[in-house]
Amino acid sequence: MRLPQWRRRQRADLDEEIRSHLAMAVQDRVARGESPDHAARAARREFGNVDLVKETTRDMWGWMSLDRLWQDVRYALRVLRRSPGFTAVALLTLALGIGANTAIFSVINAVVLRPLPFPQPDRLVSVSEMDLRKVTGGGVADSVSYPNFFDWRDRNQVFERLAAFRQSRITLTGAGVPQEVASAVVSADFFDTLGVPPLMGRGFRREEEKTSSHLVVLGEQLWRSSFGADPAIVGRAITVNGRPFTVVGVMPRRFTFPVTFPATQMWITIAEDARTENPGDTPITAQRGATLLEVVGRLRAGVSIRQAQAAMDVIARALGREYPDEDGSRGAVRIVLLLEELVGDTSYQLLVLLVAVGCVLLIACANIANLLLARGVGRTREICVRAALGASGGRLVRQLLTESVVLSIAGAGLGVLLALASIGLLVRLSPVEVRGLDQVTIDGPVILFAAALTVLTALLFGLIPAVHAARPQVVIGLKEGARTTAGSGQHRWRGALIVAETAVGVVLLVGAGLMLRSFDRLLATSPGFSPANVATMRFRLPDTRYSYTKQVRFYEELFPALRGLPGIESAAAVVPLPLSGNHLSLSFEQQGRVIAQSELPSADLGIVSPGYFLTMGIPLVRGRDFTARDDSSAPRVIIVDESFVRRYFPHENPIGQRIRPGLSADEKEPPWREVVGVVGDVRQERLSIAARPTFYIPYPQGMIVSPHLVVHAAGGRAPSEVVETVRKAVAARDPELVVANVRTLDEYVDRSIAGARFNTLLLALFATLGLLLTAVGLYGVTASGVAERTHEIGVRIALGAGAGAVLASVLRRGLVLTAAGLTTGMMMAAMASRLLQATLYNVRPLDPVTYAGVGLVLIAVALFACWIPARRATRVDPIRALRSE
Amino acid sequence: MAKHDRYQNRIELLQGTLDLLILQTLQWGPRHGYGISQAIGAHSGDVLRVDTGSLYPALHRLERQGWILAEWKVSDNKQRARFYRLTPAGRKQLLAERSRWEQLSDAIRGVLTRAAGQGEA
Question: Residues with Cβ < 8 Å from A365, sequence gap 6 or more?
Fold first, then answer.
């Protein structure tokens, strides 16, 4: 580590220039007759302080003269090495603070900030329809029906391209073991809208939407894993859901849309949805009430989101007038950036975490500032000497700030290493499946963030102590035997810093406390079924070989057979499985109430097999369960849940009432169905979302689209034990079927709370860190206060003060600071906790229990932190304290 | 604090004048730092004494600004020294500084004579 060559030469030049000046002055004096000795001394005196002249001259070489910086850095390193204890504590604190911030920011960078991997991503938008009927303030964004999408595509002038898709799963056979592949049914312009060309082959054409063309595009990953990267794959026939499809293209690995985990690897055209089971049926692509599409658009150049929104609203209103039954309540659209739609509320969760780690860093800064202030007291002598030797005040501040920056950079270096080590864990533990999470790295923007944070941190913790230390009273500081004490200004600053960091710590603690309370309530919430000992799995009956009646028969035979097998207590099927992330809703009519088609209420729908409620442990409150006799030829029946009864039959006996959901099995018109039973409420979407009114229909009288099997293991057996049994039973009937999605019901419940658990865990971790740092800070201030007051305490003890009085006087100061911090923090928390509202479950942001708990914890910790130095104060030996004077 | 401010004022006042004096001294030929301080002393009848703590920073600043150039030469009495000489830009700067100085001293003289005249009246 040396100065650059040119700079060293420049310094040598200056040295020589001054030497020659002195030599000439001496020569002149000797020439005038002075003795050489006297001449040398006089010339030296006349010249003045050589080092100061050199330094001020060097200042002219550049504003931030490199070598001065160099000198400061070397000095700082020496100072830091001289006090390894302080340096270690400060480095550790900084590494934790900056590391946590860097780690969280790297996630935010990958998920929220990094643009989508498509060309001109700022023109890609998500378009959804508003269901104005579910009015809770402006309506709810909903999926789009095929006919509406076609009309949007034909009528709009604002999109360069508009594409629709829906996620699906496809059974791929004939290429190795049969497997379920995440896939999507997409409209013609799908790949062009996103702007990604295929690796080979092509995308889909408009005319391939209508005819029942059997075309498929593969993902590069699947092409390599299942087709051996066959270069002649385009044009080859493969078996999709039991039918032959022709491969038309392969998409590159980086193309991952729609974003799914595992990644979507097959795309087929919407011709798939244009097929019908029986001639004469209306295909989904022609049903304006069947809303199952998501729509992405590429805005024309120069068209803003607002303009597009206005134009699309006009089209939506026109559709509402033309098709009042289906679109009457859907006269508006919602357009947001695609990135925004994909990231959803994850950015909010991440922001909460970033605020939390920001608080930790603030506390860390206050702590280090305090340490530096305390150290500044010890360094008064050193600084006074430097000032007396001619260092200017500005120069001293720069020197001290350099120390802070060196400390901060070293801490940040460790912090980035810490972040590097922890992001893997962070991502692996993260339960959220969101775009970008698989690409969290420490890249340019993250490094930039860490660097900015480093400078900011150094200024935050370094400025006050530097300015403070650089203004000592030189004479007092140099006086022989002057005791190293802190001035009153010092005490004020250190007190203020402790109050500030305690306040920030309280905000963190309140945040974490609220999350913990909320999570506790979530854990205590029953999903409405008993998940123990239930395994779930899924398979799809390919409709080429299984007509609707054949599917019904397959299940009718399978379930009784399963129930007879060893280890299985009961088995049933359901669509959709609670807490699996899916829910179906359907509008319905009530007998005796006339309501316009577009104003009909809707409720959640479950399609189940007999024995479902028993298998899931859902209580039957009234009436009866479905039986095998409720088949396709029997009178139509329906079971509702308690919240449905509360909402729609508040004062009547629901049994025997008739309702008509918009669903039919083989009838032309949806049939009226008689309520035969009432069951308990089940949380369908998430554990934290209350049950919505729900009705259940037996599958022979409704429909089945690859249901979840739920299997209750007998006699307390582990649910995993029955999976093989089921697999064998299914394979015995049809070896081509793939039993996939094997999970226990407990896992679904667990996944449903995983996000809350993750956030709570992190927030609690950060709050603990913050509390620890606050306690260390309070301890430090109290301890150094006691050390400085040793003399005074000695005098008091000598004058007869008891241990109790000394203890109280030390504790008092610590507790006054804590109380001030606590009060400020509580007020800040009361305002800030509103930010958490959206994540809290059954807990108000001003929950008194949390605030009281935080207060108690903080006071207990503060007492402990002050008690250690206070105890030491009581043991001061008055003789020694007085003699040390 | 007040003492500190006065010190600063003195530095600033000297700086502008010192530049002018250095440039003017170099007009008669290249000189080293010691020679410049001697010349200023001699030409002012030993009234102006240049502080080395101001001289060398000023020389290095003027060099940075491109108004003077430095090179190592051996002086008359065989001493290796760093000689400074005016650049064309420095010559132009000297003219500007001189006219500014003349304006300033004219103005001050005007104020002083007016005040003196009024005092007499």
Answer: A97, A457, A460, A461
